[in-house]
Design a protein that fits this description.
Structural class: mainly alpha
Strand content: under 5%
Low-confidence stretches: 1-9
Radius of gyration: 18 Å
Largest sheet: none
């Protein structure tokens, strides 16, 4: 019933497909997860409730990442054992987080405050991972020879990373991209970056499906909004991916990191 009310109350805004196109373009150009851009845009610019923005973006991510996962699989960029370990932690964590959101009343004050705080923290962490990406990658590779503890417990630690990502993604729709890959870089320093990214995207499909349909159950998914975002973003992602090699990725990532830092601070402290 709550889902139907959300559907009927939504007024179509022609700027939504345009915003979806802009976000998709940036995702295609930089590889930064769409949730870190789309969710705060829906909340701060269009005035959607945080729960509706997160729930709708999760199903949006599930659909777009399914295509990305298939492409990475066809190119041999998915380590399914690694993806399975992540899902072993993230999917149950998502289920438990959904139960917590249900008890808090996800659209009430408690749920709104939790989502805003979780989103702010996730954006700040994503910003830091973008700013220090090269340094963290170099640090992980330098320490790979002396990472005995990590290598002995890599399976359990991967499940733990998955659980943390599962909680963050379910609350904020952010965390399965830059944050997940950054953590995996330390656990698998000798695995090619393309395989880390491909495995992370493959793992994100079941995670976002479970979290997204869980939010549907909570009444926080708007299908008209979802359709509007997909109409704009899919061409944007394709166009961005086509021109990705021709733009200064480092400068774009720096700009995005600064924007995410400001938005994350606003959500937490304002």
């Amino acid at each position: 019933m709550r889902f139907i009310m959300e559907f009927s109350a939504f007024t179509f805004n022609p700027l939504l497909p345009l915003s979806g196109f802009a976000v998709g373009l940036l995702v295609g150009l930089t590889g930064v997860g769409g949730g870190s851009l789309m969710t705060p845009l829906l909340i701060l610019l269009f005035g959607f409730k945080p729960a509706t923005a997160v729930g709708t973006d999760l199903l949006y991510a599930a659909l777009t990442k399914s295509g990305g996962s298939w492409v990475h699989h066809r190119h041999g960029n998915v380590d399914w054992a690694l993806a399975g370990r992540l899902a072993l932690g993230s999917v149950p964590a998502a289920g438990l987080t959904l139960l917590l959101l249900a008890r808090l009343d996800v659209q009430g004050q408690g749920g709104t405050e939790l989502i805003s705080l979780g989103l702010g923290i996730a954006l700040l962490l994503t910003s830091a991972s973008l700013i220090f990406r090269r340094r963290l990658l170099n640090l992980a590779r330098r320490r790979s020879a002396n990472a005995g503890f990590l290598q002995r417990h890599v399976a359990g630690l991967t499940v733990a990373v998955g659980a943390i990502v599962g909680v963050l993604v379910t609350i904020s729709s952010v965390g399965a991209g830059a944050l997940g890959v950054t953590a995996l870089t330390f656990l698998y320093p000798n695995l090619a970056t393309r395989r880390l990214v491909g495995s992370d995207i493959a793992h994100a499909v079941p995670l976002t499906l479970v979290a997204g349909f869980g939010h549907w159950w909570l009444g926080t998914v708007d299908v008209v909004l979802l359709a509007a975002l997909l109409v704009g973003s899919l061409p944007g992602i394709a166009l961005g991916a086509h021109f990705a090699a021709r733009v200064p990725e480092r400068a774009l990532r720096g700009l995005l990191a600064s924007v995410l830092l400001l938005i994350g601070g606003k959500l937490i402290f304002v």
